[in-house]
TrEMBL record:
GO MF, any single term: DNA binding
SUPFAM superfamilies: lambda repressor-like DNA-binding domains
Protein name (Swiss-Prot/TrEMBL): Helix-turn-helix domain-containing protein
PROSITE patterns in alphabetical order: HTH_CROC1
Any Pfam family hit: HTH_19
Domain HTH cro/C1-type: 54-109
Native source organism of the sequence: Flavimaribacter sediminis
InterPro entries for the chain: Cro/C1-type_HTH, Lambda_DNA-bd_dom_sf
SMART domains: HTH_XRE
Lineage of origin: Bacteria, Pseudomonadati, Pseudomonadota, Alphaproteobacteria, Hyphomicrobiales
Length: 162
């Protein structure tokens, strides 16, 4: 079987899909996918924000790294790497498990990790600002609580619709 597809047809088909996310569900994202980062975008910065978010959510729930790993059914080493290593590229399954535990959008966690790139990634900038504002302390301050709750609401927007 052969196909006779013209360049014009391909261009028209591409134009119709411009700006759309293509895939078979959120979990179908290819973990090897990387996109060209623009000058103002840093995967390491967004991964730092992801790690900071996980750390604060874990502490807010009164969980040790081991307890969260058990609760989410993920490896302790994976969780340690997520919290402490901006170069670490997490597993899609890990992000799914954490999104379920924390009640936030898996799609947005994947965007923070650099596994995917959304058309509307303002939440990535917000998460990086949030990570920069939060300081490492044992107990969350009222300000950190307020910042964390703000980020939870941003990351949860689409989770409730699914």
């Amino acid at each position: 079987m052969t196909f006779d597809i013209s360049k014009a047809w391909c261009r028209n088909a591409g134009a119709r899909e411009d700006g759309l996310d293509i895939g078979a569900g959120v979990i179908a994202a290819d973990p090897m996918f990387t996109h060209e980062a623009s000058a103002d975008e840093s995967p390491e910065a967004s991964r730092l924000a992801l790690g900071r978010f996980i750390n604060l959510m874990r502490r807010d729930q009164g969980l040790s790294i081991e307890a969260l790993a058990d609760k989410a059914d993920i490896e302790i080493g994976e969780l340690l790497s997520l919290e402490n290593n901006a170069a670490h590229l997490p597993d899609v399954r890990t992000l799914y498990q954490l999104s379920e535990i924390f009640g936030v959008s898996q799609e947005k966690l994947m965007g923070l990790s650099g596994l995917t790139h959304a058309n509307d990634d303002d939440y990535v900038e917000e998460a990086v600002r949030y990570a920069a504002k939060s300081a490492s302390v044992e107990v969350l301050t009222e300000d950190e609580h307020a910042i964390l709750n703000g980020l939870i609401s941003v990351l949860s927007e689409n989770a409730k619709q699914k």
